[in-house]
Amino acid sequence: MDLIKKALEFEQKKMKFPTTSDRILAAREAKSLILSLNEIYKHNKEAQIMEIMKRLTAIKKRVEKRLKGIPAIVE
After folding, report:
1. Residues 44-73 as b or e (16 or more Cβ within 10 Å = b)
2. CB of 30 closer than 8 Å to CB of 53
3. Alpha-helical regions (H) of the chain
4. Which of 58, 43, 41, 42 is nearest to 4 (CA)?
5. What pLDDT is recorded for position 74?
6. CB atoms within 10 A of CB 24
7. Residue 48: its pLDDT value, please?
8. Is the dihedral of CA 3, 38, 31, 12 positive or negative?
9. What pLDDT does residue 49 have?
10. N or C: which end of the chain has fewer CB within 10 A?
11. Per-residue pLDDT for 75 more than 60?
12. What's the rounded Cα separation, in Å, for the pair 23 and 45?
């Protein structure tokens, strides 16, 4: 599962995006990974894939909040 490895690498990557374009690229990458994992999840129904998608969604939401100018609150 190369896609799962790619998602885990993205999750482990340093989440400092100094420029707006970096944030946009990160949000797009997270979205594409989530959608790709969702296609796999539809067939397998593995809990591990769902957990990865949840974590990536949280990262994507933080990046999008930062893009919109809303201060990111760590929960």
Report:
1. eeeeebeebbebbeebbebbbebeeeeeee
2. no
3. 2-12, 20-44, 47-68
4. 41
5. 62
6. 14
7. 94
8. negative
9. 93
10. C
11. no
12. 30
Q: Which two tokens stand for residue 4?
A: 């799962």
- Token readout for 52 is 């990865």
At residue 34, what is the residue type? I
Q: What is the pLDDT of residues 16-74, one digit of tens each?
A: 878 889 889 999 999 999 999 999 999 999 999 999 999 999 999 988 888 887 665 66
Is the CB of residue 70 less than 8 Å from the CB of residue 58? no
Structure tokens at 17: 């995006």
- 């919109």: which residue's tokens? 68
Q: Tokens at residue 29, please?
A: 């990458």
Q: How distant is the alpha carbon of residue 31 from its chain centre?
A: 6
